[in-house]
Queue: 4 jobs
Job 1
Amino acid sequence: MKAKNITTNNKSIIKKLKDQNKINDSLLACVGSLSLEDLIGLKFELSAEHINNRLYGFDIWRKTSYIVKDAILKFAISTTKSKKDAARFLGLTPQEFYRVCKQYDVNDYFD
């Protein structure tokens, strides 16, 4: 069983995706020039193309909160030095932070 306590040192979404050869510096430069709204819209459009623009049955409006919170949680972990700092950044108590990490399964994401 994995340790319950995770540190946030050496956690990076960029590093993880580079290690998986999913992104490179050129893509990061392009992404950096986009607004968050444009990036989200672009991702949805790319996803929809593969299924002939039919996202029926995928409740985007209600799932958006989960998707955004998952991204913010991963960002907080990758940019802070400790769990305590990540919890503070998010405005969560340590207990809430541990619960949220378990709910969003972020402990396994960075492994």
Note: Residues 11-57 form one domain.
Job 2
Amino acid sequence: MGNGVKVLDPDGEVIAEFYAVKRQDNRLVIDGKALGVMRMDMVLTSPELLKGVRMALSWGVLSYVLLIPYFALREVFRRCRGGSPRAAGGGQAEDQR
């Protein structure tokens, strides 16, 4: 059951987990769990799916997808140099020294 896609809050806590997406007639049914306790089927209708596609094609999402190789390489170089990844706060404590 731990093979789902996890959605985290800024503190790193899992707030949702998605296990499967399947089509039923003219809807998509997403098998997921909300807040770690309530497993449910979530239904996406065609109009809601189109709204989601519009969100996914926004500049913020597209630029993130295009920069994934950069983020991965940066993490590899950071590990090779023996440095630890910065905390979720952006490493502000290190920058203030």
Note: Residues 54 and 62 are 11 Å apart (CA to CA).
Job 3
Amino acid sequence: MKFDMNKMILFSSIFVISMIFSLSIDSAFAHPHPGQITINGHTHEPQTEITPLNGLIGLEKSTVFFHTPDENSLPWAFVEGTIANHVEGYPVIIQIFKDNQVVHFAQTNVDSFGQYEYKFRVLNSDNGNTNKIFHGDYSVKIFKVVYLNQENLI
């Protein structure tokens, strides 16, 4: 087998670019639907707003949409994300709403890479009886404490 330097350089370049983008993008997803979610025939983009707490840090609120279809057979769903400018020592707070009524609260820690994940049951099966805990459309509000001007940090 002959070693091809051009293929190795191409692979290495793609890998490095992928790693840079994955570490620099602040993202949040509500699953089991990956990416953009179509609800009522149109796509919902995540909405984000930041409220300054002082001159250095702020509270970032992201709103994403979550949908569990009638035919869902998966027992778990999760909210996950990566925070590019996370303030250490502050957890992520997650609130799940259906028809503007809160149905679930959660708190989860953020690891040293700025990543978080919260897993929750959407379907319960006990002795052959299935109970849908979550079904339909939900909005998920994710609160994170972030640095306001990351480029000014040493």
Note: The chain has a mean pLDDT of 76.
Job 4
Amino acid sequence: MPATTYMSGMTNPPFTLSRPLAPASAAADGVSQPAAPARPAGGVDLLLIAALLAVTGMMARAIWFTPIEAMQGAAQKILYIHVPSAVVALYLGLPLVAIASGVYLWLKDDRLDRLAESAAEVSLIFMTAVLVTGPVWGKPIWGTWWTWDARLTLTLFLWFVVVGYLVFRGAIEDRAQRARYSAVLGLLAVLLVPFIHLSVYLFRTLHPMPVVLKPSAPSLPPEMLHTLLAGFGAFALLFVALLRARLRYANERELVALAEEAGQ
């Protein structure tokens, strides 16, 4: 295959929630209880299977049916994992954390807190993929596994912020206090995303200028652009599938917690 050069420089909802229920003893005492989520149905997760098949198909297209970039060689094909992972984490996952957190502070709905927590965990998976594939791609191109490049450093810092968000949640036992403090931290975390995007314009950096997410037309040949767009779609579908599975787990955990509280 000839080398090519490019310019660089739900089907069903995951769960349904019943109306707020309270144990008889608590109701008699006038103590309000959080909403009890309905138990989600089990079985095979067809959405997750479809997402994994989509990612596999995209990777097969990238490896065997997308031209090799002339300057970077085969290492450039990491682009089709690295960039979609970054886009899904920074422009889908973390904004969802911020939106759910902000609306939680307004409505005080526990479902939004569970959504923010689940989105943060799934986003962390994709951010980890970014930080792993980046050095693997950078070593043959830059000659080093790591450099304190502005975009790399900011992304690593955001990774630690998300890890801190999740650890912080586990350190607070009071449900309402945990949700409130976590919501504030979730809103603050997303503020780093614009700086990461603009870092290649604001600082001297080894990262090239954007080739797709920029005001002008994408700077990729059609074959590469189509594969990259397929990667965006496949990884977004995988994000939704993982988020849905994580919400199911959050639902089960909430049911167990409510059952334990009712038994006390």
Note: The longest helix spans residues 222-263.
